[in-house]
């Protein structure tokens, strides 16, 4: 039973890492929206780069998620 | 100008949806309450015995084959639409044309003259991942399958006596008597025939391997052997001792980043879709009416975004690989001199 409890706590702790990704995506979109507001003509390029940046940032959060899922459902 | 809808058809869809909602509530609370499936990471085997040798057909493989069949059917319908000579495609061919046009424009604006080589990878990966991800939304995927005897399963019941179709009972449907019985001899678990292929790491790693490997191939085709100086950069070590050494280590980091691309490609798709399907399972058992529709919409969106991101990252990496890393500058100078 203790092992099961430790697994749940560990999975919860693993997800703490998503804080950083959340802040990162927030800053990214902040910059992109300001850029679009100043220069609406560039919105296409800015959007493409924003999505790429979000994908890279989100990957870190996804690593946390995968670790949490591995702790919960494997072994 | 749109024609106003005819009177006898006015608002028929809302009655269909209302009927479906009432049927949903009735089924969930009076017939069979949904059961949280056993969540596990590796794909399950569809059949109890191996097909041949040691080879099992897993349920994510079935999903991949289904996705391939759907894509081939779409390809046939598009090619028939093209051959019919209609310049304005309708229905599915029109949608595919719109998607491919967006992809093509994006590739041309990023990759320039290599767009013709890079476009097929972008389009193929995006379409395949899109079809595979959206399979998650089809009813019956993840919920129709064979029953297997497990230690901590659920009791089962025949839906219509004599039909050989069984359903899994939740604890509150089964009542105390049956759950005691189940505790004694174990119950049954469901192994779905079709499970979304992106929830299997094998699928995503295979796609990531193809993407990263073909990036190297396109890089070599564009730059020849000089492509590898991006990774092992000894050109400046002797002429400019300090900065040359820094360049050398930056090259090693580039080499490392190729491997981290593999990791991030495969885990991004896998993590998003697996977490999405777990979310759908849990929400479906917690609040089986209304709320799940909103989450299905969310998963529709996530599936689309992940497909586009996978394809777009592949395209951007390939476009970067076609551009030499130090030579870009020199080429411009050469062109200026030539002019």
Q: Which secondary-structure class do the elements of chain B indicate?
A: mainly alpha
Summarize model confidence as the mean pLDDT of chain B. 81
Oligomeric state of the chains?
heterodimer
Biggest β-sheet strands, sense, barrel of chain A: none
What structural category characterises the helix and strand content of chain A?
mainly alpha
Low-confidence stretches of chain B: 327-339
Quick one: overall form of chain A? Answer: elongated
Strand content of chain B: 5-15%
What is the percent of helical residues of chain A? over 70%
| Structural shape of chain B | globular
Q: Number of DSSP helices of chain A? A: 3
Overall number of strands of chain A: 0
How many strands in all of chain B? 4
Rg of chain B: 27 Å
Overall pLDDT level of chain A: 87
How many distinct folded domains of chain B? 2
What distance separates the N and C termini of chain A? Answer: 14 Å
What percent strand of chain A? under 5%
What does this structure look like?
The complex is a heterodimer of chains A (75) and B (339). With 75 residues, chain A is mainly alpha-helical. Chain A has one domain: F1FO ATP Synthase (Up-down Bundle). Chain A contains three helices and no strands. In chain A, helix 1 runs antiparallel to helix 3. Chain A is elongated and about 60 Å long. In chain B, strands 1-4 form a two-stranded antiparallel sheet. In chain B, a hairpin with a 7-residue loop joins strand 2 and strand 3. Chain B has two domains: 231 residues, no CATH class; 48 residues, no CATH class. The longest helix of chain B is centred in the C-terminal third of the chain and has 46 residues.
Descriptive terms for the model:
heterodimer; A: 75 residues; mainly alpha; F1FO ATP Synthase; B: 339 residues; two-stranded antiparallel ribbon; 9 helices
Quick structural summary:
The complex is a heterodimer of chains A (75) and B (339). Chain A has 75 residues and is an all-alpha fold.
